[in-house]
Structure formats: structure tokens, C-alpha cells
TrEMBL record:
<feature type="binding site">
    <location>
        <position position="194"/>
    </location>
    <ligand>
        <name>S-adenosyl-L-methionine</name>
    </ligand>
</feature>
<keyword id="KW-0456">Lyase</keyword>
<keyword id="KW-0949">S-adenosyl-L-methionine</keyword>
<dbReference type="InterPro" id="IPR040064">
    <property type="entry name" value="MoaA-like"/>
</dbReference>
<dbReference type="InterPro" id="IPR006638">
    <property type="entry name" value="Elp3/MiaA/NifB-like_rSAM"/>
</dbReference>
<dbReference type="GO" id="GO:0005525">
    <property type="term" value="F:GTP binding"/>
</dbReference>
<feature type="binding site">
    <location>
        <position position="275"/>
    </location>
    <ligand>
        <name>[4Fe-4S] cluster 2</name>
    </ligand>
</feature>
<comment type="function">
    <text>Catalyzes the cyclization of GTP to (8S)-3',8-cyclo-7,8-dihydroguanosine 5'-triphosphate.</text>
</comment>
<keyword id="KW-0411">Iron-sulfur</keyword>
<feature type="binding site">
    <location>
        <position position="100"/>
    </location>
    <ligand>
        <name>GTP</name>
    </ligand>
</feature>
<dbReference type="InterPro" id="IPR058240">
    <property type="entry name" value="rSAM_sf"/>
</dbReference>
<feature type="binding site">
    <location>
        <position position="258"/>
    </location>
    <ligand>
        <name>[4Fe-4S] cluster 2</name>
    </ligand>
</feature>
<feature type="binding site">
    <location>
        <position position="66"/>
    </location>
    <ligand>
        <name>GTP</name>
    </ligand>
</feature>
<dbReference type="GO" id="GO:0061798">
    <property type="term" value="F:GTP 3',8'-cyclase activity"/>
</dbReference>
<dbReference type="Pfam" id="PF04055">
    <property type="entry name" value="Radical_SAM"/>
</dbReference>
<keyword id="KW-0004">4Fe-4S</keyword>
<feature type="binding site">
    <location>
        <position position="31"/>
    </location>
    <ligand>
        <name>[4Fe-4S] cluster 1</name>
    </ligand>
</feature>
Amino acid sequence: MTAPLIDPFARAITYLRVSVTDRCDFRCVYCMSENMTFLPKKDLLTLEELDRMCSTFIRLGVEKLRITGGEPLVRRDIMQFFHNMTRHLESGALKELTLTTNGSQLARFSDDLYAAGVRRVNVSLDTLDEKKFAEITRWGRLPQVLNGIDAAQKAGLRIKINAVALKGFNEDELPRITEWCAERDMDLTWIEVMPMGDIGNEDRLDQYWSLNDVRAEYEKNYTVTDLAERTGGPARYVRLEETGQKIGFITPLSHNFCESCNRVRLTCTGELFMCLGQEDMADLRAPLRDHPDTEEPLERAIRAAIEHKPKGHDFDYSRQKVDGQMTRHMSHTGG
Ligand code: SAM
Ligand code: SF4
């Protein structure tokens, strides 16, 4: 039997997030600058290489695969990759195949995703106001995303909305977004904005809206009960008693959750980041490309990398300045 991946802090690594492209059809202001330089195509892992990479992680005990980016659904032929992963769901080695998307291409791909075995999709959506949506995504159009969400629900995909809590931007929309999710039977998770990458003229501290304040906002209108439940991810959950709705909070800044981290992140060029908020990474593309006929060197490189998984990130805004800033954009490591 293959030994599982256990890091130096006794955390079992069972969750891999894979960025399949750094490109995107949006330019969200907290994620990218307007003029991004993207990686040359030759640096990207091919779909076959992505398959070998993911299959090796699955053999080493990864049970959950989340495909992300950039926008994963703008990568050419990406459905082929999803369909290739179906075999691991069928064998039982993989428990969940899922993705995080901006929703722009869901109208095209939802049926195909369902056919490949995807059952849950995270859609990132920070506002229900068309003008504000165009402002925050720079290039996005809200109706296209709402159509995509409709198509996904029709296809049988369960949707979770991820909203980045942004001061002065969606504070006033908390009730509306919450009710909209309840009406459509979608889960909702709020995320604190993290200092990932240079984003041009935007100021992180101006953007930061602590989820302690979001919770306090809920408490004005609802009875908020803490739930013990953890889903293996960083979110903590509460229930709004009046609607029965479950709301998630991902709080890298106001409440560090690294002690229970079970994940690592693969970039589209085959770098393995053991932590979203640290610079340490291992190049897995070389052991993969240099040895087309055996996965042993890749396996060794993965094990060596996991032995260097750091204890946690150093993001901190508490001194009224941004500490722990990463030079990489979220779209590089995969959100
Ligand atoms: N394009 C897809 C999407 O938007 O869902 C997948 C990639 S995107 C980088 C993944 C998630 O990261 C999105 O929910 C996005 O809102 C979030 N994100 C991007 N930059 C962030 C930042 N600086 N802080 C917190 N979340 C961020
Ligand atoms: Fe694209 Fe997602 Fe980043 Fe927005 S958050 S620019 S949709 S990768």
C-alpha cells in the first residue's frame, strides 16, 4: 500500500487544488491588474501532464480535486480533462471532483460537467447589481453569469456562491445576496480579501471588510447560531435561524485556520505551493517532463515537498498595514 501524504504538523494532505490556466475573461480588481502579462503557452502543463500529475496525487491519497485558475472554463479542451478524471471517481479513489468558476461559461459547460461526475460548483459572485458587477470584474457581464447559474442548477449541479467581502462595495448588499441565495437554495460563503499580488492602484486596507463585522451585520437582523460542522475546508459556518440558511465565513485575516489545513495547490506550470500565503514551492514539472515513462521521480518530489509544508500564512492587517503580502496573484496559485 502507498503511504499517505502527511506533513510535519501531522496534517494529512487529501485535497489538491489545481490551477489549469492563469488566464481569465474577467479582471476582478482585487485579483488582477487590468494589464496582466500571462504565461507563455509552452510553460503550461498539457492536459496529458495535468492528468498524470493529478492521478499521481490521487494514488498518494488525494480524495478531493478542485479545478480552478484563472478561469478554468476558458482553457481550451478543459472538458477533456474533466472527463479523464471521471475514471478516478468511478474507481472510488477520488471522492469529489469540483471547480471554482466565475460562472461566465457555465451555460456552455454545465451538462458536460455533470456528465463528468461534477456535482458541486463554487461560483464567485460579489454583487447582484449589474453596474457594480461590471465595475468589480472590469470585463464581466452579470446576466451572462446569472444565465450560467440557471443552467448549472438545471443540469443538477449544486451551487455555492463565494463572495469576497469588500468594504464600501457590497456591504449594503448583504441582505439581498443572502435572500437571493436562500430563494435559489444555494449556499453562501463570505471571504476576506487577501494580499495576493500587485493589483495596480487598489489599496488592500481600503478593500478589507472583516468578517467579524459581517457577522455583526447578520446579528442585527437574524438569530445567528454557530455550527460545529467543518467540511474539511477553511470555512466556519453559522445558521440563520429565521431562514434555516447556512452561511460560511473564510477568515484568513481575522481568524487563522491553518491548523486544520489539508490542502496543497498546483499551478498551471506545475509548481506546487504548500501554502497560499507563503513563497515556498516545489517544481513538479521537471520530474514529470524528464521522466515520461515513470511516476517515481514525481512521487518522490511530491513527498519531499509535503515535508516542507509550512505551519501557516503570515497575512496580517492588524497593525493598519498589510503584512504577509504575496507577490503572486491569486490567479497564479489558484483561489
Ligand atoms: N476565476 C475563478 C473564480 O473567480 O471563481 C477561479 C479563480 S479565482 C482566483 C478563485 C477565488 O479567489 C474567487 O472566489 C475570487 O473571488 C478569489 N480571490 C481572488 N483574489 C482574491 C484576494 N485577493 N483575496 C481573496 N479572495 C480572492
Ligand atoms: Fe478571473 Fe476569478 Fe480572478 Fe476574477 S477572481 S479575475 S474571475 S481569476
